[in-house]
Amino acid sequence: MELFFLIIKDGIFAAVAAIGFSSISNPSPRVFPLCALIAAAGHMTRYVLMNIYGFQLATGSMLGALVIGFLALPAAKMIKTPAECISFPALLPMVPGMYAYRTIQSLLHCLGSYSEPTFMHYLYLLRFNWMTCLVTIIAMVVGVMLPILLFQNYSFKVTK
Amino acid sequence: METQEVTLHNELKRKSIFLRDFTTELYASGATTIRIEKNLGRIAESWHTKADFSVLPTCIVLNLWDEREERSYSVTGKIPADRINFNTVSDLSGLSWKIVEEGLDVTQATGIFRNILKKKRLNPWLVLVLVGLANASFCELFGGDLVSMLIVFIATIDGFFLKQKLPAKGIDYRVVIVLASCLSAVIACSGFVFGWGRTPEVALATSVLYFVPGIPFCNAVCDLLYGHYICCISRFLHAVMITVCLSLGLCIAFGLLNIQFL
Lengths: 160, 262
Known about the structure:
- The complex is a heterodimer.
- In chain A, 81% of the residues lie in helices and 0% in strands.
- Chain A is mainly α.
- Chain A has one domain.
- A three-stranded antiparallel beta sheet of chain B has the order 1-2-3, covered by helices on one side.
- In chain B, helix 2 (33-46) runs parallel beside helix 3 and helix 5 packs antiparallel against helix 6 (146-165).
- Chain B is elongated, with a radius of gyration of 23 Å.
- Classes of the chains: A mainly alpha, B mainly alpha.
- The interface between A and B is large, with 49 and 53 residues.
């Protein structure tokens, strides 16, 4: 039961994050509720995959993004807006921000190291965080773009 | 005969200019290059012309041929400063279908195009609050506690306010990002400095994440998948520039408050 509440909580916070981050790119007001629901679905998928099934961050993010991509297509048709205008903002709560932050942190440590072992340790952390961050972002975008690529005819006619 | 030639030339010119403005506006608003290509091709075909275009980092080059490929007109257009606007992308995509389905001519299309550009953006105060809440939620998703969320909310509101106001004073966008992210990070450091909350590091890490250029990164990968490599590199480098600036702001804040990570 506790896990169920944790999943719902994850979805709610992802939805709030998606609404806020999408407002920066000035979408049509009709986009907000759908974007929030889709972001919540994607984030909850990733949460379940990572915390219950033990998936890695990049794989979990890619599958979460795939859910976002597939849900964005009918939603885009419903409100006659390009699918990317819904799916890209819905993807933003999944951005691996802590890894990006730790990359900068490791870089600063690297630059401030006076001994080779310390430098090498932080260089390892720098590479690990940088690679995780980059691979996760690419996996997310590929995941969200796959449905658009698979249903090209449909996705480019949603604004008709 | 000569008059007819001039009329045809002028017609091609007007269509080229419309398509140029249409393309640059879509690009600056954050449309993917494949969508621009589809929209442009659709309009050109409905006007019995053929359009080819290349997107360079700061401008576009567009060539428009008449149906029999006897006359062509080339125009270049400067891409406006990055101002992502998905409402414009949506409306312009809709306009491209409207031109096809209702057979609109250049004058009618230009009228609708101008009306779309006149549309106001969302209320900046509303956006400010929404972004604050979004970043606070982000903090929770990364494991931040309630105090950290509150710190992040305040830090984001302050930094984003600076980001909204400074460009109007003519300050370069990179300087704006450095200053705004530095301000957010300095405020978020309060968790470390005063010992507030159990997760000050999460608060500090998430305080500048509203600057992460998610849309340019997504567009860059999308362009990569469709083989628009120059657009991909251009958008990717723009996103990297923003990331470097926000990192710089963060580092300055660390330096100012002498934050040590142990």
